[in-house]
Amino acid sequence: MKYLFAPAVALIAASTFAAPAAAQSITVAVAADIRSNNPGVNRDDNTDDFALQLVEGLVGYNEGGVATPLLAEKVDLSADGKTYTFTLRQGVKFHNGAELSSADVLWSWNRYMDPKTDWRCTSEFDGRSGLKVESVTAPDARTVVMQIDKPNALFLDTLARTDCAMTAILHKDSVKADGSWDKPIGTGPYKFGEWKRGEYFTMTAFEGYKSPSGGQRDGYVGSKRPLLKEVKFLIVKDPATVKAGLISGALDLSEILPSDAAELKKNPKLSVVAEPNAVRHVFLIQTRDAVMGNQKLRQAIAASLDMDEIVAAFYNDLGKPNTSPIYSGSSYFGEAEKKGHVFDAARAKTLLKEAGYKGEKIVILANKRPVVPSFPAAVVAQQMLQSVGVNAEIDVLDWATQLDRFNKGNYQMQSFSFSARFDPAIAFEQFSGPKDKQPRKTWDNPEAQKLIDKLYVTSDRAERQKLVDDLHKRVIDEVPMIFAFNGLDIVAHAKRVQGFKPWQSKLRMWEVTLAN
């Protein structure tokens, strides 16, 4: 059998968490209430963030966005690429004290596959989305075998997806005697606490938690000790109220707007941290447009954009450009992906002449939602385009209208954002495909699509990197869109909060302490 993950990589060595003598509590502001406490059911990103502190799956994402063993100690893959054998870690316990076994994996899986559960990701595994799990068996208490219908390099990635709640393994006592949902009894570092709808929700440290070791956090799979006694998530929708609460000390931690970062940085009692995530801010280009179909014109537009200035328009000095479809924190972001569009106004003017551009109007669609850089980025881009001789205008739309125009492919350019995608195959698929069938697709290149299809079934890491590098170079050359920069998670917290680091828009509260 092919050995997917070595025990060292899987962080097998583990130590049971022992609560510190002076365990403490923390208050975190969040902009919205959770939708449910049922992992992967009736969910959104905010709900996922909370759930993934309480539950865990066989695999989870590491810092580089790669699915890595979590409740599994190791994962073996058969030579034909269709049979995955998971060996469970020993000594892992649920919040009710029961020890994890393969029977719990089977119970959880069967519940997810039951249509009555209404799990977010049932269709990802039953064949409707191209991947079908044909059987799940448990030869012994520590072994789970999953058989899929055909090789799929994204099987583990799909199991690990946060919108699937990491395909969390739950204890059967999570449901009531009649089969209805009660509360999550998982294996995560924190236990479900109290939920007062519209006001707050809490979680408490699971003192029986057995953390994967390795010395440091690593996405969802590294050291995850619950060092806080309780975390209270207080629902505060108004950014001004959040800022006031941080300054007064009523709040210990919160995500903040980029526009508030500079002021809060000056506060001696606060720290501001910013980390890039997998969201990608882009300028979409409609290659079927009579004007924008000219590749040299698109190359000229890319050369005219000073990405440092565009990033600064929204993130000030906190962000950095990234012109690759692969986000900067990905393990696939290598030397090839670092080479992208280069600002060169003189070259842009030369390319415009070669393109035969005669001053035709180019309209950039944008919206003014405060949480995205659509409008500020469009304003700076317009100025740069005009400076090299492009007749650029901005049309500000409400978000619903802009999204409708995107879905119909009805635009010349858009200042837009793509949501996070970890695996490169999914990242490219997000914007690639035949426009005749899917008008929202931006890159309609049959040769590139063949490479993406190959990326979906190729498991060899080196081969996948070659495919990613090739696709990146093609995007830079063809310019079906212009990637500008990744999103940023910007968080302010009291300086006494130690060990916190934002990651992929998730407020991970493990390995966090509160100094006296």
UniProtKB/TrEMBL annotation:
Q: Which PANTHER family match?
A: D,D-DIPEPTIDE-BINDING PERIPLASMIC PROTEIN DDPA-RELATED, PERIPLASMIC BINDING COMPONENT OF ABC TRANSPORTER
Compartments, as annotated in UniProt:
Periplasm
What span is annotated as the signal peptide, if there is one? 1-18
Give TM regions: none
Highest classification ranks of the organism: Bacteria, Pseudomonadati, Pseudomonadota, Alphaproteobacteria, Hyphomicrobiales
What are the alphabetically sorted keywords of the record?
Signal
A Pfam family this protein belongs to?
A: SBP_bac_5
User: Which intervals hold domain Solute-binding protein family?
Assistant: 68-433
Protein name per UniProt: ABC transporter substrate-binding protein
Q: Looking at the keywords, is Signal present?
A: yes
Major site of localization recorded for this protein: periplasm
Record-linked SUPFAM superfamilies: Periplasmic binding protein-like II (SSF53850)
Q: Which family does it belong to?
A: Belongs to the bacterial solute-binding protein 5 family.
Q: Do you know which InterPro entries this protein is assigned to?
A: Peptide/Ni-bd, SBP_5, SBP_5_dom
Which source organism does the UniProt entry give?
Answer: Bosea eneae
